[in-house]
Amino acid sequence: MKKRKTTNTAQTFGSRSIMTGLALSFILVAILYYKTLALLVNDWINLPDYSHGFLVPLISLYFVWERRKRLAEPPVPSNWGLLLLASGLILFLFGRYAAEYFTQRISIIFVIGGIVMFLLGKDHLRSIAFPLAFLLLMVPLPSILIQKITFPLQLFVSRCAAESLSVLAVPVLLEGNYIHLPNVTLNVAEACSGIRFMISSVFVGTLFAYFTNKILWQRVLVVLFAVPLAIFANILRVLATAFFSYHYGARVAEGRFHELLGCILFLIAATAFYGLGVFLSRVFPDRK
Predict the structure, then answer these.
(1) Boundaries of domain holding 233
(2) Do 121 and 162 share a domain, yes or no?
(3) CB 213 within 8 A of CB 175
(4) Which DSSP letter does residue 252 get?
């Protein structure tokens, strides 16, 4: 009986030490990343494309809470966590000295993963792997990457919309990303390239994939579906705007109608995500 009591006492002391270590570690992480996180929140406020960033950490915490039973299992600390932690800190320092925000921001995911692995073990890190990866959706993509993608998308969307207008017997002349109609000229600007829609679609698609599908390849397929769906929806948006502008005037290309059209297409895209997820889960059900 004494040995059993001693063992329980040792386990309790060990658990308290680990919890204390976790608390101190995350306090140090908060201090280290204070400026980085403050700038990230500022981007969420000022960049409409990433306004969903406020939701991402909350949803990630919910995913962690879902795994509370697995996380309650006895920890098996792993020194390999120090390597992951060091990698994250190196990324952070590189981003800080190079003034590269994207690297600084994603480094926190490696740092948190390293702390969890070092203090709790590989199994616990595996349990929160998806919640950690989900945090990537709160980080704005590098500007240089956005610039390289945006203009080719503008040209592609413009060309597809112009060709569709010709099929609909609408007189149209395409010059780059400018769509000339008899009564109005439409500029397919950066905001109309589809990047915004794509970023939002990946966020929504990831949520639908998580809740509607249990098999990994199905989840990956639903998330990847976000890219062509966003491009197709944006082509429809430009096409509809041009078509109605030709018939009802230039006022259709801006204001409430333009915003309403975007909302309708986003709802259609969300429905498509849900439909694809349900279709895959029923045709290829999880046998486990």
Answers:
(1) 144-283
(2) no
(3) no
(4) G
Cβ–Cβ < 8 Å for 120, 93: no
Does residue 22 have a pLDDT over 70? Answer: yes
Is 30 inside any structural domain? Answer: yes
Q: Identify the domain boundary among 111, 140, 169.
A: 140
Within-domain flag for 288: no
**Long-range Cβ contact pairs of 22-29 (< 8 A, separation 24 or more):** 22/115, 22/119, 22/120, 25/115, 25/119, 26/112, 26/115, 29/108, 29/111, 29/112, 29/115
pLDDT one-digit tens code per residue, 55-96: 999 999 999 999 998 888 888 888 999 999 999 999 999 998
The reported pTM is 0.82
Instruction: Report pLDDT for 283.
Output: 81
**How many whole angstroms separate alpha carbon 232 and alpha carbon 194?**
9
Give the mean pLDDT of the chain: 84
End of a domain among 140, 161, 184?
A: 140
What pLDDT is attached to residue 9?
Answer: 44
Pairs from 91-97 (Cβ < 8 Å, separation ≥ 24) = 92/32, 92/33, 92/36
Q: Where do the DSSP E strands lie in the chain?
A: 173-175, 178-180, 185-187
55 in the same domain as 131: yes
